[in-house]
Amino acid sequence: MSAQNSQGIQTLLNAEQEAQKIVQKARAYRVQRVKDARAEAQKEIEEYRQKKEEEFKKFEAEHSGINAQAEKDAEKEIEGKLKEIDEAGKKNRAQVIEDLIKAVTTVDPKPHINSKHK
User: Fold this and answer.
1) Is 95 among the domain residues?
2) DSSP secondary structure, 40-80, as one string
3) How far apart are CA 31 and CA 2, in angstroms?
4) Per the record's keyword annotation, is NADP included, yes or no (predicted)?
5) Residue 35 sits in which domain range?
6) Which of 24, 88, 99, 117 is most exposed by smallest CB count within 10 Å?
């Protein structure tokens, strides 16, 4: 009977070794699949990033022209306003100088409204 037990034990050991090989192959396969999935995900992420960067550059190029035109329009408007102010200053310069001289030279002493005059 010991030969049968020995043969049975050997069969069990062989089956266990086969099972370990199968488990080891399954683990290696799973590890490889995880690596492949990560590589594929990284590739997709990079493609998506490049796509979005291209979209952003296109958007930026389209709208930078609008901004440049808006800046030019604003500059023209500012120049127009400055000319109006300059012309108004030249037109009223004599009157302003006269009013300033009059205000400085004309003395009209009055007590301050908060002073207590007795």
Assistant:
1) no
2) HHHHHHHHHHHHHHHHHHHHHHHHHHHHHHHHHHHHHHHHH
3) 43
4) no
5) 9-76
6) 117
